[in-house]
Amino acid sequence: MNDRALPSGIVTFVFADIEGSTRLIKRLGESYADVLDRHRALLQEAWDGFNGHLVGLEGDGSFVAFQNTEEAVRACAAGQRLIGSEHWPMEPPLKVRMGIHSGLAAPHNGDYVALAVHQAARVINAGYGGQVLISDDAMKSCATTSGLQFLDLGRFRLRDFDEPTRLFQLASDGLEISFPAVRALPAEGHNLVHPSTSFIGRETDVSLLVSKLAAQKAVTLVGPGGVGKTRLAMEVGLRVAPSWADGVWAVDLAVVDDSSLIEDAIGSALGVAPGGASRWKEILDYLAEKHLLIVLDNIEAHVDTCARLVRDVLRYCPNVGLLATGREALRISGEEVFHLLPLPIPPAEGGDDPEVQQWASVRLFLDRAHEARPDLPLESAAMGAVVGICRRMEGLPLAIEVAAARTAVLSPAEILAGLDDMFHLLRTNDRTLPKRQRSMQALLDWSHRLLSPAEQAAWRRLSIFGTGFSLEAAAAAVSGADIQADEVAEIVWSLVERSLAGTDLTANATRYRLLETVRQYGHRNLNAADEAGPVATRLAAWYLQRLGPWKAADRAWIGEAGLELDNLRVLIPHVAPFDQEAAQQIACLVGRYLDSVQSFATGIEELTRFARDLAAETSSRVALLAQLAHLQLRVGAVEPAREILARASELRLRVGCPDWDDVCVDRANGDVAMRSSNPEFAASIAETALAGSVSPRGRARMWNLLGLATSAMGDLDKGAAAFESELAEHRLAGHEAFVAGAAGNLAEIASRRGDDSTAAAYQSQCLESALALGQPVLVAYSLLLASRLAAGTGDWTTSALLAAKGSSMLSEAGQQLYPDDLSAFDALLVRTQQALGDTNFDRSVRDGAALDAAVAAEMASELFGQIAGRLATTLGSG
Fold it and tell me: What angle do CA 776, 780, 782 make, to 5 degrees?
């Protein structure tokens, strides 16, 4: 499509897709193609009727652009009416969900590369079939809403949106209006998810806990596994959220495999962006000025680390409270321990008593059982069995809920009989376990026995995941000679229906997870079946095929790698005993992702551990060591990098570099030379490599090194040519994560040549991409160049503000400027101080450092637009 035919400027994007398309394919088989074609034809009629431009089709999804927001809304309404009035060959009928969002964009080769596109995709992911969701930005750009009706659904936290956004639902004639809650976190000052089931039997505990929570105080909720600690903590958090000015923020430590990652998990939950080497100090500084409650859930595997961190928070953060859950206390000063007991259980003979249904354990069983079987009989015999189950389970909520789910296929009496049998077997086994744990073990043993062989195998194989997983990943882990890949989805849904797995919609896409107790049970069975090795190596191969460190680092790769990061971290120690090289490659994947999002300190910490534990002498280990040295150099740690590179170089002599990272050692050695003020040696390394046979990615990296070195030596023409070659190589290979950096380097060259217009155009592209990909270092570099351009226009105050913010962001990320860049920056500060005077300069520096990053980025973007002659420039288009 010709770019000129597509809207530009403020564009309204519409995404539409079929709800439950995978199940439809299974049900309809070959006839699904006819349904898909008819659905597309109906929607195309709606798009054409309101001047919509179909940008692309992928699977069952449509991507449409409109210049006019009102037309986009009316097209969606028309499309829903057409879909709803069609006679579909299945029941329930086909339903389509739609999302509408407006933002700044320009076409490029018949498509769009803009943050607004990603945001529009997040809007549709929050909806349901038959629903049309509209973002606040789209509503604001809608000139008129005559004849249209909208429901204000509230504000929600969606990925790719810097701030919570308000969502509206189109509620015009002929459209459905009744839908479940939006699939997104509400912006209520917390990250707690409202449970879908009722809260039963803990009102007294809630009241007591609420009364104990206070600033500079830690309360630890202690109890056995399955007693309901997490659910109670979440309920309490929801109750008290309005009373904490800066909210309530939960951190799930069950998914944290290594205690060294807890600080990062807390920072991520609080929204503190990854920064420099002193990650914990940054978090404490952030908390020092906040009035909020932190919920540390499942501390049992990290008690010592949590004790230290909680002690720091209590000492340095006067308005922060903490609520922890675990199987043991932290044992620190300022902590109050709250022991959570199982739910009360009725006497054994209570089945005939009508009042028995008032016991909390019985109420919980009946509530969950009615969800599974609405017609559950409540005669005396059935109630007697329910009482027996609650007593056998000793009031453990999780055990009761899992048992209640079985009423979908078994009567309470049959459930009780099954437990009787398993209890007898258990009493002959491990008597060292506490009685309550033996009860849970009995339930899980018995639940396991009731599953089919395929479901049993899936349960134990899914335990390899540390957190949520997609159906595609599940198929990779579960499928084998006994289970076909296309059978896995139904098996996973079966485990969900049996309360052995749950769904997680917080990532704006359906993922699945095993409850922690269920996962641990499955993992014991995985080891007992001697399947840990095959499952781990199979899943590692799948992840590497999909996300291997040799893949193009485009936006899709970055998004998926970030979503799977915790699973990748957990998988490495599982696969290492069976395939060290695969483990090393996954470690390189993790390192490359953290480098792409410029989380350097976390990357150094993790790769240091991986390099220690994954010692097999392979070419992938060479890449792993070089990646670690590269991250060290990012933060200016030259000497540690030299030592690591010495090991990498010595190993390279014996095993070589992998073909997917062929210049890794030489590139890092070149950066050592640059950091050591020896650009001549760096240039010779690059030129030698480029004269030989090098991979496309390797050529891009060496062009980058040559550009840095020659421009530092004063040869701007040669530097510009090198950076242009780097940019072309990255674009050709689809490495979006590095295109922004190349554009920024060209901007720097243009600026040094005095070509401010070209510099602004290149840096505008760099800034836009860096914001979309979450690259704080490149945002900071953009602010520094904007500062220099502002100085060139005589706007010294803006120059000082942006310089201070850019410098602050680089410091937070631990990034060190190259010597020539540092000299240029220092000279700019001197000129700015002379122009403003000491008092005004000092005030501007303080204000700039405190400036919100998004505000600073907007200031820079406007400045680039003014100097380049337009607001946004897409280089190389048309």
Answer: 115
Segments in the chain below pLDDT 70: 1-4, 143, 180-181, 184-189, 193-194, 196, 271, 273-277, 350-352, 420-440, 442-443, 499, 504-509, 870-878
Which of left, alpha, beta for 394 (phi over 0: left; psi -120 to 50: alpha)?
Answer: left
Which residue matches tokens 């479901």?
455
Residues 480-497, buried b or exposed e (16+ Cβ, 10 A)?
eeebeeeebbebbebbee
CA distance 526 to 528: 5
- Residue at 118: amino acid letter: H
**pLDDT at residue 505, rounded to an integer:** 56
Q: How far is CA 145 from CA 65, 71, 73, 201, 306, in A?
A: 19, 10, 9, 48, 53
* 374 CB neighbour count, 10 Å cutoff: 7
Closest CA to 744 of 815, 829, 681: 815
Give the pLDDT confidence score for residue 592 in this predicted structure: 92
**Residue 260: what pLDDT?**
87
Q: Give the C-alpha distances (Å, rounded to integers) separating 663 from 475, 595, 612, 637, 707.
A: 35, 17, 22, 20, 16
Contact 324, 304 (CB under 8 A): no
Q: What is the 3-state secondary structure (H, E, C) of 132-150?
A: EEEEHHHHHCCCCCCCCCE
Residue 735: strand, helix, or coil: coil
**In angstroms, rounded to a whole number, what is the distance separating the alpha carbons of residues 626 and 212?**
51
- pLDDT given at position 443: 63
Please answer whether residues 797 and 787 qualify as being in contact, where contact means their C-beta atoms are separated by less than 8 angstroms: no
The pLDDT value given to residue 197: 77
SS3 content of the chain, % helix, strand, coil (to 5): 60, 10, 30
pLDDT of 185: 63
User: Rounded to an integer, what distance in angstroms lies between the CA atom of residue 419 and that of residue 427?
Assistant: 12
Q: Which of 132, 178, 136, 131 is nearest to 155 (CA)?
A: 136
Tell me if 672 sits within 8 A of 645, measured CB to CB.
yes
Annotate 39-93 with DSSP letters as a single string: HHHHHHHHHHHTT-EEEEEETTEEEEEES-HHHHHHHHHHHHHHHHHS--SSSSP
Across 179-198, b (16+ Cβ under 10 Å) vs e yields beebbbbbbbbbbbeeeeee
In 491-557, DSSP assigns E strands to 501-504, 511-514
Cβ partners under 8 Å of residue 401, min gap 6: 364, 365, 368, 499
pLDDT of residue 580: 95
Residue closest to 676 by CA, chosen among 788, 780, 819, 537: 819
Strand partners, 112: 107
The candidate with the shortest Cα–Cα distance to 190, out of 247, 272, 251, is: 247
* Token representation of residue 261: 């990652």
Listed residue (778, 773, 777) closest to 747, CA to CA: 778
